Amino acid sequence: MNFTEVVAASLKSIVSNRLRSFLTILGIVIGVTSVILLTSLVSGLKSYITDQIQGLGSNLMFVIPGRVGGSRSPGGIQANRLVMQDAINLTNKLKGSADVSAVVQKTATLKYSAKNDKGAAVFGVQANYPKLISIKIISGRFFNESEAQGGKRVAIIGATVKSNLFAGGSPLGKSVDVAGVKYSVIGEVGPRGSTFGVDMDNTILIPLPAATRQFGLDRLNTIYISAFKAEGVKDIQNRATALLGKRLSEDDFSILTQEQTLQTISQITSVLTIALGGIAAISLIVGGIGIMNIMLVSVTERTREIGLRKALGAKQRDIRNQFLIEALTLSGLGGIIGIVLGIVLSLVIGRFFTTAITWWSIALSFGFSMLVGVIFGVAPAIRAAKLDPIQALRYE
Amino acid sequence: MKNSIIKLSHVSKIYQSENISFQALKDINLQINKGEFVAIIGASGSGKSTLMNILGLLDKPTSGSYELDGLSVARLGQDTLANIRNKKIGFVFQNFNLLPRTSAVENVSLPLIYAGISKKDRDIKAKGALEQVGLGEKVGSHPNQLSGGQQQRVAIARALVNNPEVILADEPTGNLDSKSGTEIVRIFQRLNSKGHTIIIITHEPEIATHAKRIIKLKDGEIVK
Ligand SMILES: Nc1ncnc2c1ncn2[C@@H]1O[C@H](COP(=O)(O)OP(=O)(O)O)[C@@H](O)[C@H]1O
Ligand SMILES: [Mg+2]
């Protein structure tokens, strides 16, 4: 009997024992489905973040408080020591080769007439912010340097803030209450969507001096540095590091270039993928034990059949191959069902989150489930092959 | 002696289990020639099946020698024995031993699978064998759709499909009514007339009368 005939015979016996076969391969199905689904979620997350960062332009760097990456990580939460003077020093030092823009951040409740917008992100930014970060002003305008320095209370709002407070009407010229202080709306930013349930449009941009005064913020959340030339990024990172290093220790700040940020994200998602893959692999192994169990039962149930086949001329390898191929057919079937389920589920979930089905996860999980089939199918198959024909024929 | 297909010399079989040993066959000397129709009779427990298993290469004697078609089989390995069984011996069992949920033609095809014959040729040969036992109409039937006599005829078709020298039947009529039993014996007689060597085990003297030669076993020894 050649390979395809044995597979066809195995499929026939699998179909005639539908429920039992299904329970047998359930572990494999779950394992393969979860490998494909989880890796598609992680890759989706990675490609989303990567797009977001690349959308910022490769000339952009972030100065953030605390130490990120590297072999040494600080114990506990570090106090933020980045202040406005650091941003001013950077601005002066890098004049002619890069733009510098500082940001403070706060969460607050916004109000307009009877309407509320809880948990909005308030960004205190400098007038040159739109030059560094590409935001789309869809109506009105951004504030200018003299408004900022004059402590003017003006605001540019995001799409969610607009719909929560102004219900579709024009917000321009209206006065919005930010944690108890009134700001006049002068512009609107176009919608940016949401990432993993975080609404990127529930934001309001106000001048940094006004934000600092109102909220008593003297520490900066981010300083953006945008190099004029892409080739200058590394050099500017070095100069900025040297300058900040005069006042701050190296644990107090990090300067991330886009390249480094992408690398860090890549590292995080690799660790995530491996961890999730490990969990899924365990369920595949459990699935393999299920297959071994059912194959051993099957060998016992079919002892007479094995004896008969041997009496009629089956060699040890014929019997061994028959049971091995049956185990492989079971695990392969589980793998295929798992692949279909994994793809369908990630397409469904893809309507809410970014998912990216990866071919390597399909190949890997299918390969692994076949491997599990071989490993856990060998013992029952060898047991079947070794049965003594007379003992087997006499078995009741 | 060139006509000899089976030759047993001083064969004995001792079953050894833990601390009990039991001698089931004692110094058996037996020669069967090509084309013979032999009945082996004897009371239950007299060693008939033990002898049959040795003749069919399913078991080995404890001592003594066995030549099948001129070949001494004592030192042959499992897979070689399987191959010889496949080519030279057809088995018919008391309880038919058909695969359930498997059609008659597929049951009959089993020995041909292990002879490495293609699916197409297997089907042709298996249908031919079923026709020989009068079951040309039942090729697609499953065992549970057939009477006992018909199931045993399927088993005989399976035994003869690979055209073996010897057909060994261990109480083939034991589970059948006398009418079906007689039919089965007729089939064996017809196969014998076509040149197959038939060895049939039975404890029914009536069945044995159809054989050309009767060998009687008693307590593991040939008495006649
Ligand atoms: N595997 C075995 N182990 C121990 N004793 C056995 C075994 N097989 C058969 N016997 C014994 O050998 C004797 C002959 O058995 P058997 O050849 O089956 O007799 P028959 O077929 O003539 O009824 C019986 O007493 C039986 O109990
Ligand atoms: Mg018996």
In short, what is this structure?
The complex is a heterodimer of chains A (396) and B (224). With 396 residues, chain A is an alpha+beta fold.
Q: What structural category do the secondary elements of chain A indicate? A: alpha+beta
| Strand order of the biggest β-sheet of chain B | 6-7-8-3-9-10
CATH class of chain B: Alpha Beta
CATH superfamily of chain B: P-loop containing nucleotide triphosphate hydrolases
Q: Using the coordinates shown, work out and report the CATH topology of chain B.
A: Rossmann fold
- Could you say which overall geometry of chain B the principal axes of the C-alpha atoms support? globular
Number of strands of chain A: 12
Unreliable residue stretches of chain A: none
Number of domains of chain B: 1
Can you count the helices of chain B? 7
Largest sheet of chain A: 6 strands, mixed, barrel
Beta-strand content bin of chain A:
15-25%
Largest interface: A-B, 19 and 24 residues
Please give the count of helices of chain A.
13
What is the annotated CATH architecture of chain B? Answer: 3-Layer(aba) Sandwich
Helix/strand order of chain A, N-terminal first: HHEHEEHEHEHEEEEEHEHEHHHHH
Keywords:
heterodimer, A: 396 residues, alpha+beta, six-stranded mixed β-barrel, two-stranded antiparallel sheet, 13 helices, B: 224 residues, alpha/beta, Rossmann fold, six-stranded mixed beta sheet, four-stranded antiparallel beta sheet, 7 helices, 10 strands, 34% helix, binds adenosine-5'-diphosphate, binds magnesium ion
